[in-house]
Amino acid sequence: MTDAATPKKRAKPKAKVQKVPTEAQAPARQVIGKDCVVAFHYSLCEVNAAGELSGWLEKSASRDPLLYLHGHANVIAGLEEALEGKTEGDKISITLGPEQAYGPRRPNSVQRIPIKHLHLRPDQKQLKAGEIVAIQTHNGIRNALVVKAGRFNVDVDTNHPYAGRTLHYEIEIVGVRPATPEEIEHRHAHGHGGHHH
């Protein structure tokens, strides 16, 4: 018998093996601290006097995550304090009283303002009591609650709409990175979900 009749053995293909980093080898995740830009999703509801949660007032899941520059008072104090030391992927639940959130309600905060000083959205043609509007002030744009709407003027409550309320947040941190020198200089985060110039 000749060698020609014997089938030749083919070399087995070598499998490519990738090393998967172990926990000890994986790069350390950025910890939230001063001058970090944090991206997070949140859901917000109110806690009533009996300690029960209302329905959700706000949810960010269907939008870009919110970005803020940590350590520069870009979010309410209680929330910033709760996020300190956390990392990407962490989820937290936190309940904040008015003093940690938007402060107590200030009495005598209803003012009559000409409608021309409002920054209205395109869908805000006819203002109604209970709507939130943006007002141009000496300190920039501020949200207020419509108490009564007229043809040329509107009565608004200049307390923050959530002032005096106990709020419950569900937070998911989706990104943490060092801030750029420009972000630190401007004292806010840039990019989707942050401040735009």
Biggest sheet layout: 5 strands, antiparallel
The number of distinct β-strands equals 10
Number of helices: 2
Q: What structural class results from the helix and strand content? A: mainly beta
Low-confidence stretches: 12-17
Q: Could you explain the architecture of this structure?
A:
The chain has 197 residues and is mainly β. The protein has 2 helices and 10 strands; from the N terminus they run E-E-E-H-E-E-E-E-E-E-E-H. It folds into 2 domains: 94 residues, Roll (Chitinase A, domain 3); 48 residues, Thrombin, subunit H (Beta Barrel), CATH 2.40.10. The strands form 2 sheets. Strands 1, 2, 3, 4 and 10 form a 5-stranded antiparallel sheet that branches. Strands 5-9-8-7-6 form a 5-stranded antiparallel sheet, with no helix packed on it. The longest helix has 7 residues. The radius of gyration is 27 Å and the shape is globular. The termini are far apart. The relative contact order is 0.23.
Short description:
With 197 residues, the protein is mostly beta strands. The chain is 7% helix and 36% strand.
Key terms:
2 domains, globular, Thrombin, subunit H, Chitinase A, domain 3, 36% strand, 5-stranded antiparallel beta sheet, 197 residues, mainly beta
